Amino acid sequence: MKSNRIILAVLATVLFAGCETEEKLLKNHLFIATDLKNEVRVATDEGITTLVREVSVGIASPAAIDIEAEFTASPELLDTYREAYYDQEALLLPEKHYKMDDMKVVIRSGDVASGKAALSFTNLGVDQGLDYTKTYVLPVTVASNDIDVLSRAKTIYYVVKEASLVNVVGDMTSNCAWPEWGEFNEVENLETFTMEALINCHGFNNKEIETIMGIEDHCLIRIGDAQLPKNQLQIALSKRDVDDATTYRGNLSDASLQLRADRWYHIAMTFDKGYVKVYLDGRLKIEKDCSLIGSRPGNDGQTENVYFTSVNFKVPHSDEMDNKPRCFWIGYSYNNERYLDGMIAEARVWNRVLSAEEIAAPNHFYKLYPDKETGKFDPSLLAYWKFNEGEGKTIKDWSIYGNDLTADHDLLWYPVALPVK
Length: 421
Description:
single chain, mainly beta, eight-stranded antiparallel sheet, six-stranded mixed sheet
């Protein structure tokens, strides 16, 4: 009798668990775990012909069984897209421009997310039948025999269009990033260089200083200062004289360098043995010979000049605490409150002075291209951080040197279309 009671208790537990699983499945729903409008931007100027997009599904609560799902093309939903997104001119992407060979995914028992299926977009070249003055759409729907699919999250619309020069940017608000130069001697004691970046600030009301890039108390591009309007660009320069334990400082700024919030600006600074020029949107705004940065008593009682004719960016990265030397950052200087409250793209460092014509050249603000024959960038481009990853906290260096940036934490990433057409 005792053994019979045990068996009955086990059976009851199993039945209860089965009912509970069935009930959860009835309440649980499958959904597509990505943006339901997903733009496939084709960089035709780079000769891109194939792109891959990954897609997965999820559920709100773990299930006690494996859940299978499959993605399929749903051309009949084109009109639904047109109405939902007010785009009556959108065209259906022809079949020759995509492949959906294996679009099945599984959420394993106890998990809430599936693996990823890969959807390939092919034959995307301008000579392969697509008219990039038009927008093409591929509706893709997910279905499952194991669980209901959430109706409002069962279809993803892939929108195929020609890419802008800049399509994704990183937001540096409350963040910062840095390179690990290691033995990269090319950034040491630079007598000539150019720093440039494309930025868009959210606002200037709550911060005295915002940092773009460089080294605090050495060579820094920043916005604002104690004696400046909070929205005014400034080049801050300084040289530490170890012999007399003195830091000599200089700066360069002008009212013509005041910025507006929520507007994109291209900023460039050139340095030629202490002679500094500052460009805003390709226009030279201010220039000054900053090579004579101070003076000190000489050994013979006469005054000696102190010159600032080179910049050393090759400082080992650190947190700068406990008297460690200041090092190169993007979006940080002195303390955590001086971050760049805004977005950034196309940050670059060169070992030469770019000419006014180069800086103002068509599309220079937004994109650089490698040499057509070698497929590589000019060796004078020491670092090229596009900030176009779209995820994570690693920012690739597209120059031939590969000094990637690491951010303190994942950036916020935003889609854009620059330049605005």
